[in-house]
Each structure stands twice: as structure tokens, then as C-alpha cells.
Amino acid sequence: MKIAIGNDHAGTNYKNEIKNFLIKKNITVINHGTNNNESVDYADYIHPVAKQVESKEVDMGIIICGSGNGANMTANKHQKIRSALCWNKEIAELSRTHNNANILSIPSRFVSLKESLEMVEVFLKTEFEGGRHLKRINKIPKKQ
């Protein structure tokens, strides 16, 4: 499995811990995030993650910013992205089973590191249910 990860300054510490967590599970991690805590613009680090997920260069993405909102909004500008802002493992699971989310957005200022790692674990192992949910997610992309 290959995961792209991106973060702004509010997510650097979480990104490093998540990256180590994934590497221990033999998951390849492509880091698009900043590596320090100096203020940066989240979009510069999130678009590359979304592009790699959209082109299927990676299996999934993880994005992190303070509230999770800016990162999530940025990722969802890409047509083939279904980024889910999650704040607990139950929401992360539903984002996969019902919405086939392909990017997990984490609000680092509002969840603990432990909760973040639990969400990552659940997000990566949960499969999409399909069925009635497939019809719904097929309606998400903007009609040209």
C-alpha cells in the first residue's frame, strides 16, 4: 500500500507520528507536507496529495491541518476525490463504508494523537460497502 500525506504547520507533529506508524506497518509514505512549524499555506501541501490520489499513483491520502477544514476543502476541489473530515474512528469508518472516501482529513487542534492514529488505522482497513451507497457517490462529481 502507498499513502500520500500532506500537512500545514499545525499538522507537522501529527504527520511525523502517523508517518512512523504507517512505516512500521510496511506502508510506503510519500510526504508532501511541511516538515516544520512555521506558518505555511495548506493548499500548497494538499493539492499534491489530491493529485496523486486522483491519478491513482497512491492508494489513499491523509491530510492534516489545524481544523481539518481548509485541507478538506482544498482536496475536495479535485473531481475524483472524496475527502472526509473525521474527528473519531466511527466517523472515519463510515466515511469509508458509506462514502468510499479516499482521503482522510484530520483536525490536529481538535483530536488527540491517539485518536488520529486510531482513525488512520480504521480508515485504511475499512472497505467500501457499495450497494445503495455506490448510487449516491456516483452523483457527487460535477456534471460537465
Q: In angstroms, what separates the terminal alpha carbons?
A: 32 Å
The helix/strand class is alpha/beta
Q: Kindly report the name of the CATH homologous superfamily.
A: Sugar-phosphate isomerase, RpiB/LacA/LacB
Query: Main beta sheet: strand number and arrangement?
Result: 5 strands, parallel
- The proportion of residues in beta strands is 15-25%
Layout of helices and strands:
Layout: E1 2-7, H1 12-24, E2 28-31, H2 43-54, E3 60-65, H3 69-75, E4 83-85, H4 89-97, E5 103-107, H5 113-125, H6 132-137
Parallel strand pairs: 1-2, 1-3, 3-5, 4-5
Helix pairs in contact: 1-5, 2-3, 4-5
Give an account of the 3D structure.
This protein is an alpha/beta fold and 144 residues long. It has a single domain, classed as 3-Layer(aba) Sandwich (Ribose 5-phosphate Isomerase B, Chain: A), CATH 3.40.1400. The chain is 42% helix and 17% strand. It is built from 6 helices and 5 strands; from the N terminus they run βαβαβαβαβαα. Helix 2 crosses helix 3 (69-75). The longest helix is centred in the first third of the chain and has 13 residues, at 12-24. It is globular.
Brief sketch in words of this structure:
By secondary structure, the protein is an alpha/beta fold.
